[in-house]
Here is the input.
Amino acid sequence: MSPSPIASRLPGRLRLRHPALRRSPANRHLCDELGGWDGVTSAEGNPATGGVLLRYDPVQVEPAAMEARVETRLAELFDAPPAKAAAPGGAGLDMRRLNRAAKVGMLTSLTASLLALAVGKRLHAAFGAAHLAFLLVHLAHHRRKMLQ
Here is the structure.
């Protein structure tokens, strides 16, 4: 069973989060659908956070009923496992682990580069090149955020 898509709740307001809502078309589709429900005053999506803020009239619609309806609809839309192409060679690449390793590599190579100044320019340049390589991996991981 997947965790609840309701990240926070107040009478008249639900904040929804789901990884599938990071896709703009899915986010927009859900906002359009929820916005047409009886008692809903607005549905605002944010694909960058994978969230939707749903405002409704708690007098017209009981909060527990709205929560149940939203959870049911999100389960219908998104809980079916997406079809993924298998990565060649097994489990695939975990980008978060790779990024974490790149950050450790950047810190280590920068420190080594500064210490290498006492030894010679060539060693300093070699560690500087390693730092740039780790930086490129880190930037590749965050490319979508930088290009928005």
Observations:
- Residues 81-90 have pLDDT under 50 and may be disordered.
- The first helix runs from residue 24 to 35.
